[in-house]
Amino acid sequence: MGKILLGCIADDFTGASDLANNLVRAGMRVVQTIGVPAGPLGADVDAVVVALKSRTMEPSEAVAQSLQALAWLQAQGAQQIYFKYCSTFDSTPQGNIGPVTEALMDALKTDFTIATPAFPDNQRTVFKGYLFAGDVPLNESGMQNHPLTPMTDANLVRVMQAQTTRKVGLIDYSVAARGEAAIRERIEQLRREGVGIAIVDAVSNDDLMRLGPALKDMPLVTAGSGVAIGLPQNFKLTPSSTASELPPSAGLQAVVSGSCSLATNRQVLAFIKAGRPALGIDPLRIAAGVDVAAEALAWAAPLIQKGPVLVYSTADSNAVKSVQGRLGVEEAGAMVERTVAAIARGLVERGVRQLVVAGGETSGACVQALNITQLQIGPQIDPGVPWCHAPSDAADAKGLHLTLKSGNFGTDDFFTKAFTRLA
Ligand code: ADP
Question: What domain range includes position 134?
Answer without folding.
Answer: 6-239
